[in-house]
């Protein structure tokens, strides 16, 4: 256990940040899953709508540092490619 006041504060901050990141990563995965499920159901309209909802969430996660920018670009690209297979 930490003994310094600053170290105790850092522990609290890290825990708070960890919970925020965990929530955002979970939300991100949910949005990606919705796109994949719409594609599996072969519902093009729903898939496009889900993709348009997922892109800003993916980009925001990258800007916050929750995922790497390359990971975000790759995810968007793969999801768009997947949705375009329906058309």
Give the gist of this structure.
The chain is mostly helical and 87 residues long.
Notes on the structure:
There is one protein chain. The chain has 87 residues and is mainly alpha-helical. The chain has a domain at 25-84: Ribosomal protein S20 (Methane Monooxygenase Hydroxylase, Chain G, domain 1), CATH 1.20.58. 84% of the residues lie in helices and 0% in strands. Helix 1 runs antiparallel to helix 2 and helix 2 runs antiparallel to helix 3.
Question: What characteristics describe this protein?
Answer:
mainly alpha; Methane Monooxygenase Hydroxylase, Chain G, domain 1; 3 helices; 0% strand; elongated
Total E-strand runs: 0
The CATH H-level superfamily of the domain at 25-84 is Ribosomal protein S20
Report the sheet-strand fraction.
under 5%
Q: Major beta sheet, specifics?
A: none
> Class of the domain at 25-84 in CATH?
Mainly Alpha
Number of contiguous helices: 3
CATH architecture of the domain at 25-84: Up-down Bundle
Uncertain stretches = none
CATH fold call of the domain at 25-84: Methane Monooxygenase Hydroxylase, Chain G, domain 1
Which structural class do the helices and strands define?
Answer: mainly alpha
Order of helices and strands: HHH
Q: Could you estimate the helical fraction of the residues in percent?
A: over 70%
Through-space gap between termini = 57 Å
| Rg measurement, Å | 17 Å
- General shape: elongated
Mean pLDDT: 95
Protein name: Small ribosomal subunit protein bS20
Keywords: Ribonucleoprotein, Ribosomal protein, RNA-binding, rRNA-binding
Organism: Geotalea uraniireducens
GO cellular component, one term: ribosome
């Amino acid at each position: 256990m930490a003994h310094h006041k600053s170290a105790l504060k850092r522990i609290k901050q890290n825990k708070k940040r960890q919970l925020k990141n965990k929530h955002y990563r979970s939300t991100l995965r949910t949005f990606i899953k919705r796109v994949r499920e719409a594609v599996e159901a072969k519902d093009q309209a729903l898939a496009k709508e889900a993709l348009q909802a997922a892109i800003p969430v993916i980009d925001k996660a990258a800007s916050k540092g929750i995922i790497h920018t390359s990971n975000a670009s790759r995810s968007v690209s793969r999801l768009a490619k997947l949705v375009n297979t329906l058309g």
